[in-house]
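Table 4 source record.
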Amino acid sequence: MTDSRAFCPRCGDPVTDRDESGASDPLRSNAAVDLCDACYFERFEFVDAPKRIDVRVCAQCGAVHRGRRWVDVGADDYTDIAIEEVSEAISVHVDVEDVSWQVDPEEVGVNTVRMHCYFTGTVRGQLVEESVTVPVKIAKQTCTRCGRISGDYYASVVQIRAEERTPTSEEIERAKEIANRIVADMEATGDRNAFITKTSETPDGLNMRVSTNKIGKKISNKMVEEFGGTVNDAETLVTEDEDGNGVYRVTFAVRLPPYIPGDVIDVDDGDGPVLVRSAHGNLKGTRVRTGERYEASYEEGNAPEARKLGDTDDAVEATVVTVEDDHAVQVLDPETYQAKTVSRPDYFDPDAETVPVLKSRAGLHILPDEDDA
């Protein structure tokens, strides 16, 4: 250190230059740089800490109120919240270098955590230390989101139904999975307005009350994407806001196709029953008489005029008696045990000893094995 030929404006003593180059730190104020060490440390405050911190925490979900909004902090307990709040509230003097600190929380009540904080650092080449104690008061409240959930708030209703049948358990469970995943994805991005208010199964299908129209639309579109069908939406005026604008609740009515993969239907076109493979767009399937591919016309879509004969779960194993030719095979009727000649579809394995068959009003037909279905 060299004589800077400057004098402390407070005490008049010479001020030594702390930088060999003579340059001043631009982060420091000129007044602080010009002071001698004795006067500088007389006014120096290492840590600026509040006397107390009041924190509003949702008693239901643990969210913390900051500014004008509630924030999910992911804390395991109130001590974690207190540590985070103290970290945000305490500031260290800009001149301090190599700062390190630790905290020793002390629970002094159900809703109070006393935070003992210890700091060390270096200023003007000298080691400085300081300790402060900040009490953190926890006020349990109910956040906006939990208040809406408990108040049965919802902006959209999703109805899962099916044409001429009841949605399957797979379709019902899939709708729930889709809704939960959509909400979880939106929550992960910080959207606290995303939640499911209520899910209820009815004799006709499934009803879901969700917090936003965006969620309702996503659930509906995803169901149609996976299972086929259609979506219709309708608005209902429920109230008016403070400016007199209408507030609407939207109902998304999902109508799943009348047939699902695995159904065997008779389209009554003279070419035999069809094993449904897909109901996306136009219904697609396989002729169980020949094994040929079937696709409904554009006009028929996913619901052609047909009657259901059964499904793959209704099939039973029948013994193969003999292969007559390229178009016929004899099997034992699973009910009468009499040998019957039936059509031989392309997927029939001539080396098979048994085959799955479906007996219906349209006759006896060989279905594909599960591996071929």
